[in-house]
Amino acid sequence: MSDLSRRSSLLTTALVGALLPKDVPEGQMVRAWLDSWAGLGHVVDAMHDAGYNVSLFQSPFTWWAEFIRDEVTPIAKRTGRNHDALPWRAVQRAALETLRQEQQP
């Protein structure tokens, strides 16, 4: 397993943990780490290391996050997009969607 694959697996595990129901103790621990601006930065940095750029913007009632593969092609491929009332949750869900799509054959 390559280092990038290993880090992608670890990030996927952390993101799934952050999205566990609130009454699951392990989810509470991961959310305490990732549900903040600092946690958002950790996810964005990990995704950037994997070759993705992020776009994060706020509309009147929600935050949108979108990950785009950093390629040399003239047209960038959007790979994961999601929204939520909380910016870190939008980033977590978009990153998880991106990682899931990456693992599909």
Summarize the structure.
The chain has 105 residues and is α+β, with helices and mostly antiparallel strands.
Largest sheet: 3 strands, antiparallel
Strand order of the largest sheet: 1-2-3
Beta content comes to 15-25%
The CATH first-level class comes to Alpha Beta
Unreliable stretches (pLDDT < 50, length at least 5) are none
Number of strands: 3
From the helix content, strand content and strand pairing, which structural class follows? alpha+beta
Q: Which CATH architecture is right?
A: 2-Layer Sandwich
Give the oligomer, counting copies of the same chain as homo and different chains as hetero.
single chain
User: What is the CA–CA distance across the termini?
Assistant: 17 Å
Helix coverage percent: 40-55%
> Per CATH, what is the topology?
Double Stranded RNA Binding Domain
- Total count of domains: 1
Helix and strand element order: HHHEEEH
Shape verdict: globular
Radius of gyration: 14 Å
**Number of separate helices:** 4
Whole-number mean pLDDT? 87
